[in-house]
Every structure is written in C-alpha cells, then in structure tokens.
Amino acid sequence: MERAVLLVTHGTVDDLADLPAFVTNIRRGSPPPPELIAELKRRYHAIGGRSPLNETTARLAQKLEQKLGLPVRMASRLWKPLAKDVLWELVRELAAREVTVLAMAQHSSAVYVEAVRAAAKVLTPSPTIRGVPNWGQTPALLDAFATRIRAAALELSEERRARAVLLLTAHSLPMAIIARGDAYEREVRASAEAVAARVRDLLPDHRVAFQSQGMSEGGGAWLGPDLEETLLAIKTGGDKDTVIFAAIGFLADHVEILFDLDIEARRWTEAHGLSYVRARSLNDDDDFVDVLAGLVAR
Questions:
Q1: Which long-range contacts (CB under 8 A, 24 or more apart) does 23-29 make?
Q2: Can you give the residue range of the structural domain that contains 179?
Q3: What is the spatial distance between Cα 241 and Cα 25, in angstroms, rounded to a whole number?
Q4: Are 282 and 148 in contact (CB under 8 A)?
Q5: What is the CATH number of the domain that holds 226?
Q6: Predicted TM-score (pTM) of this structure
Q7: Geometric angle at alpha carbon 105, from 7 and 166, rounded to 5°
Q8: What is the pLDDT of residues 179-215, one digit of tens each?
Q9: What's the domain count of the chain?
Q10: Which of 134, 160, 184 corresponds to the end of one domain?
Q11: Is residue 19 part of a domain?
C-alpha cells in the first residue's frame, strides 16, 4: 500500500487580492466588511506584503520527505492549495492509498483531520486517512520550544535574566467554543507548563496569555488573558523589566507572530517601559523535522 503524508495548515494568501475570498472562507461564507480587509492588508504590508507560512511549510514538507522516504505534501484547510486538490494528486498521480494527516496546529488536530477526511470521501478510490491526534505535549516538541527559549534567555546577561519574565502565548478562541467542551485551553496550558518547567533554571517566572483575538459572531468574549492585560500585570508587579515572548501555540512565522507579536506586542511592551525579546519559531529547522518524522513513524 503506497503511503503519503499531508501537512495541513490553517492557510494564508500569497496575493493580497485573494484576502476577501480567504477571509470569506474563514467566516464560513460570510463576506468580510471592507474595513476588516483594509486592516488585514495593513498588517500584511507591515510584514513585507506576504506571510512566509506557505514557503516555510513547503520547505518543511521537502525536508520531511527526504527523511521519511515517503511523498510529503502540504495543503491548507481554508485556502490554496486546498486539501481536496492535493489529495487528488496523491491518489491519482502517486497511487497513494493511505495518507497520514499531520495538522500544523498541534492543539487542534481533529478539526484539520476531519476536513481532510471529508475531502477524501469524494475521491475514487478513497484513500485511508490516518490522523495524528493532538501532539502539543510531545516531549520532543516541548524540547524544541525550550531550546529556543533557552537560547533567547542566554543572550541576556545574568542580571537581566533575573528581571525577565517568560510569556508563553497561543492563539485565542471564542469562549463559546471553549464552553462547548473544547479541550484547547487545557492542552495549551499543559504544554505551557511543560515548556516552562524545562527552562525554570534560567527563567523561574512565567505567564500564559492568549493572543490575536478576533471578533466573535454576536460580539462574544474570547479566551484570555490577552497580551495587553498580561503586560500591564507584569509592569504593575514592578520587579520585571524584560519580557521573553515564546509563541508555543504556533509552529512557524506568519502574520500572527510577525505582526501581532513583533510589531503590535512589541509596541505595547515598550509602552509599559519593558524590553521585548522573542524566542525563535520552529519553522523548518532540522530538529522540528525530527519531531514530525517521529509523529509519522509512531
């Protein structure tokens, strides 16, 4: 049986002209207001006009393919290349009969895997879809995050480290989703505590915050605490002057890191008289490739 691997991201656009259609997909067919598109374009322009997510994921797929000796492709849940189109290629051109789906959202795998399963049902023959379950607490992944946090901390003097706080972040969700029993918050917090434990010798003080809140239908609340209130609490504490951000809910650089953290959160941090430091993302680094290879093998 021919096997293949599919890396599935949330998605992003390479051409800003596609933003309205992309956001319409995110909003389940509801067209976005012009002011929302204008704000998103402003954010993309601020990071150079495009997100590096697609290019990074393509390189990651190529490295993983070389390591596994299996076909590895990338797809997006909400934009091109869509999972249904990539599955068609795997089945028709490469005769794949079994596809392992690895969601590039380690705390929300089921949503991504089910989207691929739905796409696979319309194919003839329909491949067997094997989804990697939530993997945010995989020890090798936690080690990879900790390695980058440790590197960021060691760039500071011992005196500055003593005045630094580690801020572990992940994307927020509408509270309505959490109220329905979604385990996302529990899983993120468990991952955060496990990462913090790995670097406690350097950074004994840590916080968890949820970033990139959007607008819920009906104006509902989003999961918090958010970045601004967390930064204010750090400032009010009075004994810290440096914040080391580690986006442990994300795997690769994209607009939620390059704008929401490196531009917006940096501005908030410095407005409170604090110094901004960010640990590097995993992107397509070799140790992260090893993490993914281990998940597929398992």
A1: 25/78, 25/79, 26/78
A2: 139-278
A3: 41
A4: yes
A5: 3.40.50.1400
A6: 0.96
A7: 135
A8: 999 999 999 999 999 999 999 999 999 999 999 998 5
A9: 2
A10: 134
A11: yes
